[in-house]
Amino acid sequence: QVQLVESGGGLVQAGGSLRISCAASGSIFSMNAMNWYRQAPGKQREFVAGISTAGRTNYADSVKGRFTISRDNAKNTMDLQMNSLKPEDTAVYYCNALKLPNNYWGQGTQVTVSS
Question: Which of 3, 12, 72, 96 registers the highest number of CB atoms within 10 A of its CB?
């Protein structure tokens, strides 16, 4: 069983930056993939960014060029560096780890971007 804990959320002005982190209780080295999702009020949860065991990354079009995902297998952590934040980035951000057939989720961290 893997537990995921997000941290680093908060309030930031539009155009600012924020870095959120995900700490795993177990090893993330064997995870098939680790991802960030987000859910804004009244909207469905959506994919933000993902990183494979090999370090390959992919991003939602809405954050491409502004967000950077990274992982540290030795520390069992994953980060999301968010730059040029927009009010529409406001959401609860969730850490996700995929180890087939299991799918693990954190509790989420709130990111609020003021205009």
Answer: 96
